[in-house]
Design a protein that fits this description.
heterodimer; A: mainly beta; four-stranded antiparallel sheet; 7 helices; 6% helix; disordered N terminus; B: mainly alpha; Serine Threonine Protein Phosphatase 5, Tetratricopeptide repeat; 80% helix; 0% strand; elongated
Chain lengths: 590, 407
Amino acid sequence: MSTKCNFRLLTFVGAALIAMSLSSCERSSQPTITDVSGKKTPVATEAESPSATSSPELTRIRSDSDWFDDVTESTGIVFTYRNGAKGNQFTILETVGGGVGIFDFDCDRQQDVFCVGGGTIDPRTATPSGLPCHLFHNTGDFKFKDVTVSGHISVDTDYSHGCVAGDIDNDGFPDLFVTCYGHSCLMLNCGDGTFIDMTNSASLTDESWSTAAAFGDADGDGLTDLYVTSYTDWSPEDHTPCGNSIVQTIDVCPPQNYNPLPDRLYRNQGNGKFQEVSEEMGIRNDGMGLGVLATDINQDGRIDFFVANDAVANRLYLNSEGHSFIETAEFAGVAYNEGGSPEGSMGIDAEDIDGDGLCELWVTNFEMEDNSLFQNQGNGLFQHATAAFGLAGQSRINVGFGTGLHDLDGDSWIDVYVLNGHVLYNNGFTSFRQPAFVFRNLDGRKFVDVTGSSGTWFHVPHSARGGAVGDLDGNGMLDLIISSINEPTAVLRNQLPAKNWIRLQLVGRQSSRFPVGAQVTVEAFGHKCVRLAKSGSGFLSQSDSRILFAIEPERAEVDVEVAWPSGKHETFRARVTATDHVLIEDSGAD
Amino acid sequence: MAASRSSGKSRSRRTMNHQVFRRWPRFAGLLALLIVLIFVWRSKQGDIASVCQQAGALLATNPNRAALLLEQVVSVSGTDAPDAYVLWTRALLAAGRHSEALGCFSLMNNPSAADHKMLLLLADEAVVSGDPLLARLSLEAISPESVDRPAALQRLISLNQQTGNATSIMPLAQELLILQPDNANSWRVLAQVQESQKELHAAAATFQEVLKREQVTDRRTSALRSLLRLQVQLGERTAARVSLNELTKIAPLKTTDRINEVLLLKLEGEMEQAWLKISEVVAQSPTNMLALETRGTLAFSRGENNTARKDFEAVLRLEPLNKQVHYKLAQTLLRMDNIDDARKHLLENRRLTEISADILKLETAAAEGQAEIDRLNKLATAYDQIGQRETATRLREAASRLVPVAQ
């Protein structure tokens, strides 16, 4: 057992912890350093080896009936997000972690993978520096090739957190925005397999701390605008770590120790430039944003933004005719938990969970807070329905980050995964690495915990943050890529048997090319399945933007209804051929 | 040779005897002096004991007279009579002469030399007299090696809880546990401290330890209740179900247990069963605020808005600063299209939320000197604003006690 464990037993916690489970010692198996006062301080370790997340036991308990198989080692994706913990400065910057993106950058109909790099923290000055992000090209059969250099992915980004893909010039090739502490980075996809950094020319010159981002046409002009959340005003110049009263060591400070930074909404001016319009569009400046979702939440044909804030109220910006946004979270019932208190919200998503055609909102939260499922009542009001859907208490002892609402088992109902990991390196009782969960939706009524059959990756705790979902092998089942702090990025292949399915790629004409805010409806398995075209869902990550529907085995054709952000409603008849269908606005039946 | 050696020895012995006899008067004098001193000391001790006994008897009826007697004793004995000092302190305390009592105790060079049971008694009396500083000094004088140390530690923990001195409680509870690792009470004290410091995981684990050691049924039941409450708070549905089943076997369920059962059913997603149970609880305890709030919450989730509104309004009549009920009522009113009233309750929730955030910040920002006094007073004001008067009073008392230190 570690030095750390002995230290705790002897010097602080005393006999009380002797009787506690051995697992608490295992969880805190960090080395310690002793400072000049003789006080021991945990050294945040960074897992260096890809094998750090696997063990002989995992091999033994692996099962073919698991939902996901950890295929990381065979994919060619060798990447680890670094948070700079080695600097031993215990900055709040280290807590946020990073995301991962799944998108088809070269339009070859195979989903590629983008890994956000993170950074280092100077051990003397706490100054952060960026580490390179990496782009992996999907070469088929679950193999990927690192094309970072050939793709000219900017390698000199600042300390990075999140990524989001969107088509800012409507050329059909997804562009990329990477959020950073310092200069965030807008990379324009040239369409020839390369990107160019156009951050400065686009006037995206904010130098503060950006976390999450979402693309969407906020003003209805057919151009993709950009919403960026900001966290706190922490800076290395003022950095002082905080004392952890529970285990009497130093650790990172809570966000409440800092001031919030304003979120920013940028209008795409169509000439390669963006203009900040936050204030005139009604965006508040008092959040500590870690998640933002763009989609049409109230089904009025315009995109809205839902923002997950840490420690302060969440915000729901409803689009008012494209001229401004009206913040309604408190009245709508999505600002707080069931008891009216703000939570530490991180991950975010929206989908129709109960099959009533209305989208629910979902956020993952800090420990001792349930993750919040806000059930849409259809009249602008939401009801906190975490308990009613069997999700209360399920992940309460963990700190929730990455998440996503997706039909993971191909039964037409939206399931949910939750990635966890603590922000404190040594929290006394719960660990820095925490287990992730998968919950299966039973007919839109209740979720059941299926983590036990989700695969080996889910059987051990991780310091997980961002997760992205996408069909990486084109078999109609959604795979999962997970970014964890100082652990190898994990590639989890969905090995449930593929069923009958169709997948849709929406192409807007009057709407923006990737029409965030579109709503697609298919009747299948005896109920209406509604899916949303959205941006920013999850945590700091970009999931496969194609829309997948599971269809009954005997069906050969389905009618697909699309409500475009332009206001147009069309119906397309699609053959169920287990391939992608490209639905172009104005080419369906009214 | 042998003879001459023998005669030599004999001569030497004679010489020695001669010297002893020559010095005898001096030895005798010293011996006599020693005997006299012992006698005087003994008689003085006897006098001290006798006067102490006499003063002790007067403590309840005439503490001022007792104090006078004891003052005379300590003026004669100096610092040789720690028990007399403690008794004198007690007498002054009983006479309501608090500052003199504190001063008297402070005069002792080594209070640890006093009888430890007497120190415990003094501490208890000081607590009753509202003199926590004297109580603390008295208890801290009981050394770690003393058999009375566990009793002193328990009193110190209780004292620190009353005075809001949270940071010092945990080490005391841990020391108590080290001294009495097999004693269920030591674990109970630690668990209570952990729970009060919001270390809920640790508290739940420690209550499990209490249950391993506690044999007395009532105390086992109490520990099980605490454990169930914590497990529900932690969302540990399986463990909570086990605890509830065990509790049901050994004791009739109280109203709080039944509400915890409802909350557990809610955790398990069994909303219909939770609704049936809470309806029973409210029928039996119609004025229980937590039961009403819980029923209101479940009624809201079922869409029974009138019931929810009625329950939340009933709670607010008695607890007008109940933040979460303001919010829940607001949500109910919004659903009933009563926007204006809903707005009022949302604003009240927001106001109370901001105060709660201030409290959180203040509680984690311990300072020193005047800054600490200011912090405690601000914290007291904040607690007043959310209706927690007892906590506010305790914090103000703690702040007032810091004034001499700051000066």
